[in-house]
Amino acid sequence: MKNNRIKKIFPFKGLIIAVSLLCILVIFLGIQLRNYSKGVKVQVARANTHTVWIVADQILFTKEYDTRITKDNFTEKVAEKLGAGFSIDQISITLSDDGKSVTYVSYVKDGIACETLDGEDILCGNY
């Protein structure tokens, strides 16, 4: 007798479960989209034939563009750390969502190619 009463109150049990799961999914996706668009800033720097993308501390590379940009201002700032006699290959400056500046440079100096992140050499080798 209790089963009949429950069936009369909830005749579409499967539909209720499906709608509940759909609501949970919509809420989850809404939270993810809000976190994504909350202020992660992305900047693109194009140098020579490389485009360097930095998205919240992750460095991604593409080689689809061949644009010449003026690197004078950036070169002056980096020259203090690297010294004279280098050529910049790839550059990018970006702000992560916590407001900290992240700088990636790939350069060649005295025949040695190096990659640096915030002034720290992360990879160097013969050119």
Automatic annotation (TrEMBL):
This protein's UniProt keywords: Membrane, Transmembrane, Transmembrane helix
Protein name (Swiss-Prot/TrEMBL): DUF4830 domain-containing protein
Chain ranges passing through the membrane: 12-31
Keyword Membrane: yes
